[in-house]
Write a structure and sequence with these properties.
Helix content is 58%, strand content 6%. It is an alpha/beta fold. A five-stranded parallel sheet has the order 9-10-11-8-12, with helices on both faces. A four-stranded antiparallel sheet has the order 1-2-3-4, with no helix packed on it. It has a three-stranded antiparallel sheet with strand order 5-7-6. Helix 43 crosses helix 45. The two termini are 28 Å apart. The C terminus is likely disordered.
């Protein structure tokens, strides 16, 4: 499917109201002209739509400048779809535009493909398959096509043609049912069709024929009288020749009208009938069916409970028409002896037991001349034997296809692996209608209807329902078990109890799938000892991990009893001040929790690969390094196993040490060529960093080490980059509370950094208290670093709180001290504040010189984030002392760079500064919108501008100017428009103000 929003797959639907989905989630296209443009492109998807045609489809009476307006709408639509320029699905061509829609991404294309396959099935004397395909095609229709698209041209020229295609499919489906002898079954449908389309003679003819073949000749003749009267009254014509001839043949009882013997009998086999509805998986089901047409062995892989069996049975049932000798299921779950596999398959195929002959030979003889689909379900515990048997059978029986399910691939020749992921879950809060489009939510609602008929998804419980599906990882088995609980518990109550999910989610069923724990136990039993121990070991990671992290934290190696940061390449102050040591036993045995029989470091990569193969882990190799993930359900199981062995605390200590080392290294390398990479890596590892901090302050870890981690993350500006200042302040203050005896330099630095965050939030009282405590504790420390930190904070406080011009000298002194201590990143931060103070509080020449020096230093460091702030600082100097017009370009360049690297803090000040500069250059309406947009960002990040005096004064100055120029009413309207934009950054950079 097409790549769009954040490089996810886009799907389009026009057989009903226009819809766009990104990985199954709705993408709002709210603007009417954007919907019309998208529809105008989609009805001719894959072909160039001339500019003139698009203009005619968008406007009944094209305005002046229609071409320019069309270009603007194309730009906006591209942004809505998450792309820019020609990089997304919409491409510019010499004569117009084209939208690229890969196979299966547009419902109209799927509809046409299904009807084409149905015609081929009829020609191949497979009417049952044709009827199923046409039913699937008609199910794609969700109502009136393009009902919400405001285009008269599309309504007049395109919609009627779409309706005609649907009517043709309805007619073809009835003909296929006739071939199957379903004459009575189709009468309700034909009654509805003749009522909805009373002038369509073809449906009256089919209704008459169905009635006649059902032994209801008089009713068939009455139908002819009815349609004759309708045609005469409405059109003034008689029935057509074909309908008249059919009437005459019914009158005379023509024997040729009798129903022929049904063709295409149901394929043989033993597939069980479905007892519940099949929910979601449409794309995966299509892919499975397509693979079965070309590949001879397809293995559906995935963790237990993910729905492999259900998908395999549905795919097999839909593909059975292709196999004259049927589709057969062999459930291997009860099999405990791999050597009896051939006998188990023979029994499933209902082959009489010929015990004097080898079972494989019996199977080969039976299958050699047959065209048959064999479903081998639950192969994981006999994978090696299954691979050998399947290889033998496929080599001897050319008409055989095998569809297997397993938690690991069979590794048989010619095998095609098709991973089955969990169901799609809602990513964030949403209205109930959009929430129910997610597969996991649909499954929960469907199953709850049977066992909890009172349950409904409402505005009150929709957040809990979405959270429940997310916490259950979209695993169908877990969701179905949760639906059972909805009969006695609310969604909120189930969500609150999910920490004990293995006891909560239980039900009766097959022995290996009786409970959620039973499913996971089954996977655990399939692993060898090294795999089980690594499964438990990697459960200490949160949100994923890479190979280096697993090799550092999880191996079983001599000397693992003592853990500190230097083991991972960086010895920090907290490591020197605190030792993470598991006491050695007096008898010389391994400390509690040391892995016995687990993988050594060199083997971790191979054991990880084995866990991926067995669907315990997933791996994403699209980035570098590859990233491993584990479903939360499997992770909780691993943590339980880890606790049982007594290894949880030692491994969590290693985990905290590893991520403490990462934070320390990032702080040391901040403000350099790898700065953006480090910030992105820290954001990616935020769940692990959070877990390390939580362990450090929870009693099981070392709070001094937690203070070091929080301090280093602050020094990297991670909390700012991620717009999580509140979280950073929480960890710093929590660790400070628990470490009254920490080394004075570390504690004074932590207090100063907490004061810095409080200051940036505009919380003056807290910042003042924390700074005073830092000065009291660190005043006597002469380590070369603490005095620099305190000087920096005193200068920042004087600048941002008091607006004191003396802050310029204080910040310059702090910068010199940082440089003397070799702290490049901290020195650059002091330079930044120094240049800002000079711009706000200094004279023209010194301010411009400071701005140029700061920008040059940032560029020299080749640090992306620092460079963006260098441009911002130069823009500030130009705005206040130089060329306001030039400041606009500098601010925009800074904002564009920050947006590109995913910075969430810088754009707050980029949009605010652009509002100041826009006001200064006279574009007062736009300045008011930008002030509103900036206020939205400030609220989002929780910053109180009133606590930052120079910036607050600059805001007031711009606001007063704009109010005076526009007047109160116009200012308020423009401000509210900006405050209502969904994307303040896009607005600031010149994009459309997409309003909520």
């Amino acid at each position: 499917m097409t790549g769009g929003v954040n490089n996810v797959a886009l799907e389009y639907r026009i057989l009903g109201p226009l819809e766009v989905l990104a990985d199954g989630r709705p993408v709002p296209v709210r603007a009417a002209k954007q919907r019309a443009l998208l529809a105008a492109l989609l009805v001719d998807a894959g072909s160039v739509v001339p500019t003139e045609t698009l203009i005619a489809r968008l406007w009944d009476e094209p305005p002046d400048g229609a071409r320019n307006a069309l270009q603007n709408y194309v730009l906006r639509l591209r942004r809505t779809l998450g792309s820019a320029g020609d990089t997304g699905p919409i491409r510019t061509c010499p004569r117009g535009y084209v939208i690229d829609v890969p196979e299966g991404a547009l419902d109209l294309h799927r509809f046409d493909a299904l009807t084409d396959r149905a015609r081929a099935a009829v020609a191949a004397h497979a009417p049952e398959r044709a009827a199923a395909l046409l039913g699937e095609a008609l199910a794609l229709w969700r109502g009136e096509p393009l009902a919400d698209v405001p285009s008269e041209r599309l309504a007049l020229e395109v919609v009627p043609a779409l309706h005609e295609r649907r009517l043709n499919a309805l007619e073809a489906r009835t003909e296929a049912d006739f071939l199957l002898g379903r004459h009575a079954d189709v009468l309700p449908r034909l009654r509805e069709l003749t009522a909805a389309h009373p002038l369509q003679e073809r449906f009256w003819a089919q209704r008459m024929l169905a009635l006649y073949r059902s032994g209801r000749q008089s009713e068939a003749l009455d139908c002819y009288s009815t349609v004759s009267a309708l045609l005469g009254d409405e059109l003034g014509v008689d029935p057509g020749a074909e309908l008249w001839r059919l009437h005459q043949r019914i009158l005379t009882g023509d024997p040729a009208l009798s129903a022929p013997p049904p063709r295409g009998p149901r394929a043989k086999g033993n597939l069980p009938a479905e007892t519940t509805t099949f929910v979601g998986r449409e794309a995966l089901l299509r892919k499975t069916r397509t693979l079965l047409e070309s590949a001879r062995l397809v293995t559906l892989t995935g963790p237990g409970g993910v729905g492999k069996t259900r998908l395999a049975l549905r795919a097999a049932a839909e593909a059975a028409w292709q196999f004259p000798h049927g589709a057969w299921l062999a459930d291997l779950a009860p099999l405990t002896e791999p050597r009896l596999l051939d006998r188990a398959v023979a029994e499933a195929l209902r082959i009489p037991d010929q015990s004097l002959r080898p079972g494989t030979k019996v199977l080969v003889e039976h299958l050699r001349e047959r065209r048959l689909l064999l479903v081998l379900d639950n192969c994981e515990h006999v994978a090696e034997a299954a691979a050998e048997l399947v290889g033998t059978l496929l080599g001897a029986a050319p008409g055989l296809r095998v569809l297997a399910t397993s938690r690991q691939g069979l590794r048989a020749p010619g095998e095609y692996l098709l991973p089955v992921p969990p169901l799609g879950v809602p990513r964030q809060r949403g209205a109930a209608p959009s929430l129910t489009r997610c597969e996991a939510v649909r499954l929960l609602a469907d199953r709850a209807e049977a066992c909890a008929p009172h349950f409904r998804i409402t505005a009150r419980n929709q957040e809990a329902v979405g959270g429940l599906c997310r916490r259950l990882d979209g695993i169908p088995l877990a969701i179905e078990l949760a639906a059972v609980r909805l009969g006695t518990l609310s969604a909120e109550e189930i969500l609150d109890r999910l920490d004990d999910r293995f006891r909560l989610l239980s039900a009766t069923g097959p022995h290996h799938q009786r409970t959620l724990r039973g499913v996971v136990d089954w996977s655990h039993d399939l692993c060898d000892e090294r795999e089980r121990r690594l499964w438990a070991g990697v459960s200490v990671f949160s949100g994923g991990f890479d190979l280096a992290a697993a090799e550092a934290v999880c191996p079983d190696e001599p000397g693992d009893e003592t853990v500190c940061c230097r083991d991972f390449g960086h010895e920090s102050a907290s490591c020197r001040g605190a030792s993470w040591t598991e006491p050695a036993r007096q008898d010389g045995s391994a400390a509690a929790g040391v892995i016995v029989g687990g993988p050594v470091r060199e083997d971790v990569v191979d054991v990880l690969a084995a866990l991926v193969h067995k669907s315990v882990l997933t791996v994403d190799t699209t980035g570098s390094p590859a990233r491993y993930r584990m479903l939360e359900t499997l992770r909780q199981y691993g943590q339980g196993r880890l606790a049982e062995t007594g290894r949880q605390v030692p491994l969590r200590r290693r985990h905290s040490a590893y991520y403490g080392s990462m934070a320390a290294t990032a702080a040391a390398q901040w403000c350099g060529p790898d700065e953006v990479a480090w910030l992105s890596r820290l954001r990616r590892e935020s769940p692990n960093l959070r877990a390390a901090l939580d362990f450090s302050v929870s009693g099981g870890g070392d709070a001094t080490a937690g203070l070091e981690i929080a301090a280093n993350l602050t020094r990297t500006r991670y909390w700012f980059f991620s717009s999580s200042l509140g979280e950073g302040r929480h960890w710093l203050t929590r660790a400070l509370e628990l470490t009254p005896g920490a080394p004075a330099p570390l504690r004074a630095g932590g207090l100063a950094l907490a004061a810095w965050i409080a200051l940036c939030q505009g919380d003056q009282p807290a910042a003042e208290h924390l700074l005073a405590e830092a000065v009291r504790l660190g005043g006597a420390v002469e380590d070369g670093v603490t005095p620099a930190v305190l000087a920096y904070m005193e200068g920042a406080f004087a600048f941002l709180v008091r607006g004191d011009a003396g802050s310029v000298a204080l910040l310059a002194r702090a910068r010199d001290r940082f440089r003397a201590g070799g702290l490049v990143g901290d020195a650059h931060m002091a330079t930044m504040m120094w240049a800002m103070a000079a711009a706000f509080l200094g004279e023209r020449e010194s301010a411009l010189a400071a701005g140029r020096e700061y920008a040059a230093e940032a560029e020299a460091h080749r640090a992306g984030w620092a460079h963006s702030w260098g441009l911002w600082g130069m823009g500030l100097a130009e705005l206040r002392h130089g060329d306001a017009g030039r400041s606009l370009g500098l601010f925009r360049d800074s904002l564009r760079r920050q947006w590109a690297i995913g910075d969430r803090w810088g754009p707050v000040w980029g949009v605010e500064a652009l509002a100041w500069a826009t006001a200064a250059t006279g574009d007062h309406g736009r300045a008011a919108r930008l002030l509103g947009a900036a206020a939205r960002l400030l609220r989002t990040t929780g910053v109180a501008l009133t606590g930052l005096r120079p910036l607050h004064y600059a805001h007031i100055e711009a606001e007063r100017l704009v109010r005076a120029r526009l007047g109160e009413e116009a200012y308020t309207a423009a401000y509210e428009e900006g405050a209502g934009t969904r994307d303040p950054v896009r607005l600031a950079l010149g994009g459309a103000a997409a309003v909520r």
